[in-house]
Design brief:
This protein is mainly beta. The protein has one domain: 5 Propeller (Tachylectin-2, Chain A). The protein has two helices and 23 strands. The longest helix has 22 residues. Pathway: Glycan metabolism; L-arabinan degradation. Belongs to the glycosyl hydrolase 43 family. Keywords: Glycosidase, Hydrolase, Signal.
């Protein structure tokens, strides 16, 4: 009788443990990275087993890794400025390029990026393509979207994504009137129609990344809210909302429309990693971002984490 009761208790404990593992997966993890991981606004992709990370910096900075955890710095994309940059952004600072986004489509890698001057919406999103990142046969494709002081939006922080039918779209925007979404022509890989506002937030919103999750039936709009670029004084947080339509409305968990300031924070940082943001969500199982390392004078560094989804269809990671 005692043995039977012990066995019953053991089974009950095992059942409870399994339920906890389902609710809070023990394998939810952030990769341990090494090498050169200095980065801001990372964009992540894998080509033939090599992990590539493009980021804000001189001529678009490039990191690469053969194992996905140990990174080295590669050759920057631009050695000199395309002539059209000075036409659209006269006050642009030489080769300073912001917030790239990489997308593979129709046999080519499409690298979107932005040029601007801090605090201004005289900005432009450009496109450069190649057939192989390793080969580095980059070809300038010119301007994609631009804005100026009379524009409501700010043409920076591009993110290309596909809807559930394979149609292409781009989200972009920073502060000013917030985040916008526009359809992308599959031939030119540039906008083909109007841009629609999907999110605003007082105190700062930018760095959008949209992904469709077929398991939940929702589009998820990830954003960085708050302020960046001030080391450990940065207030960036990663937040999210979701919608059944590409053009919204996107709602936070509490039901607030993101156009009205709604945003569900899923990462506000910790004692070491301050101001997480500039995120890229390359798949429903991965999120890549930067944060400021409090143990290294606030240097921005790369973080890569497994992305999980709770029973209500909301993303989280540790």
């Amino acid at each position: 009788m005692i043995k039977a009761r012990k066995k019953q208790v053991t089974l009950l404990l095992l059942s409870a443990l399994m339920l906890l593992m389902v609710a809070f997966p023990v394998n939810a993890s952030t990769r341990t990275l090494s090498g050169d991981i200095g980065v801001h606004d990372p964009a992540y992709i894998v080509e033939s087993g090599i992990t590539w990370v493009f980021s804000t910096g001189q001529g678009i900075q490039v990191l690469y890794s053969s194992n996905g955890t140990t990174f080295s710095r590669g050759t920057q994309v631009f050695a000199s400025e395309p002539s059209w940059w000075s036409t659209y952004v006269p006050n642009h600072t030489k080769l300073d390029v912001w917030a790239p986004d990489i997308y593979y489509y129709n046999g080519k890698y499409h690298l979107y990026y932005s040029i601007s001057s801090f605090g201004s919406n005289t900005s432009a999103i450009g496109l450069v393509t190649c057939t192989s990142i390793l080969k580095g046969d980059w070809v300038d494709q010119g301007v994609v979207v631009s804005s100026n002081s009379s524009s409501t939006y700010n043409a920076i922080d591009p993110n290309l994504f596909a809807d559930k039918s394979g149609n292409l779209y781009m989200s972009f925007g920073s502060w000013f009137a917030g985040i916008y979404v526009t359809a992308i022509d599959k031939t030119t890989m540039k906008p083909t129609g109007n841009s629609y506002r999907v999110a605003t937030k007082s105190g700062g919103i930018e760095g959008s990344s949209i992904i469709y999750n077929a398991s939940t039936g929702y589009y998820y709009l990830f954003v960085s809210i708050g302020t960046c670029c001030a080391g450990t004084s940065s207030t960036y947080k990663v937040a999210v909302g979701r919608s059944t339509s590409v053009f919204g409305p996107y709602y936070a968990k509490d039901g607030t429309d993101m156009k009205n300031g709604g945003a569900t924070v899923i990462d506000s940082g910790n004692t070491q990693w301050v101001g997480p943001g500039g995120q890229d969500v390359p798949s429903t199982s991965l999120i890549v971002r930067h944060a400021y390392d409090a143990t290294d004078n606030g240097a921005p560094k790369l973080l890569i984490s497994d992305l999980y989804w709770d029973s209500s269809g909301w993303p989280y990671y540790n």
